[in-house]
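Consider the following assembly input.
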Amino acid sequence: MTVELLNQEFENNRGNLKSFLVRITASVADAEDIAQDTYIKAVEKLSSFRGESTLKTWFFTIASNLAKDNLRAQKRWTENVTDITKAAALADKQFFQEAMNIRMTSTQGQFEAKEHIAFCFTCISKSLPLEQQLCLFLKEVYEFKVSEIATILDTTEAMVKYYLHTGRSKMMGIFDGRCALISKNGVCHQCSELNGIFNPKQNTQQELMKIEMVKEAEKGDKEHLFDLRMEVLRGIDPFKSSAAELQLHHLEHNRMVMEKYERKNAD
Amino acid sequence: MITTSAKAQTGKAVTVKTTFSRETSVSIDIKADASIVWALLTKASDYPRWNSTVTSIEGTIALDQKILLKSKLDAKRTFKLKVKEFEPEKKLVWGDGQGNRVYTITNKGNGEVTFSMTEKIGGLMFPLYGGMIPSFDQSFEQFASDLKKESETIMNAK
């Protein structure tokens, strides 16, 4: 293995790594720092790479370990994160002014409901235990095999299956109770509300019906709806999509609100 | 009086009664890794999702920790229990002054484990109140069946 080959492979995977890291940490700065530290560690440890896994798996192993170190001291978010952050946003004029400015001026400032679905999943997944969150993203979004995830997280395939099953079940339960897009019990309408604010000329219902998950909602197959939600996430790169700047601005807002919320509740 | 049911590993409960105690046991074979069975048994907040006999467990299932358990068998009561033994992937014991619930996982070596659960209640005053305590048999069988179903579902996932 040469440094040139490593550089080439790292560049091929940098986008996916950053996407994974921002969804795990909910922080643009942390995602960028950890991606860079992953590269540095990979170069430092190149001589110890025996080719027992692919380079992609190896990069994700280093990145996951760094992310775990970064997140270990932080509290997990609560399931109702979107309620807490919505209340904070409504009380913060500057947030909406900044968001509207991005919406009007940025080439990555579009608002699309499917982008918000992905964003929402990122926020709520931070209420899962870290292992469950990591396994869910690695399997369902970044399409690693169970055996590869076991390598990445240095655990057994049995435990990866356990984390996946429990994480998936918990997220399905949360969305069934919260997401009005898929459930009559759903109390959260933020996709529709924000679409009304950012795209006032659109027929929100028509826009939502373009999303496969929403179209399939009436059938009520929770497993299938979860798979369709994951398909939405797989189709979006949070740094490169046409809504990236708007959604990352929103994510930064939510992270700061939740950090403040956790500090307040720790007192 | 001694009551016995069918073979234990099939998930049928067995209750042995004496004047001063009552002991109910159940055993069932589970085709799953011991770590999965153990993880399910020790994640308190997750119980209501897979176990139809438990309404809730509050607290952390770890050695010397106290937990609050609500069961469907006696819906009005909250059992204040202490975790007395905690041997990962092998043995878990919780209980109170009245009795202990013992869970054991025995690796059969062929990708299968035997899960057993026993609870003995009793004491000098047992003859006075024993008759008021409902039978555990059905609840034990349901617990074991739920654990087997959930563990094997997880194990068989792709």
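Chain A is about 70% helix and 0% strand. Ask yourself how this observation constrains the way the partners meet.
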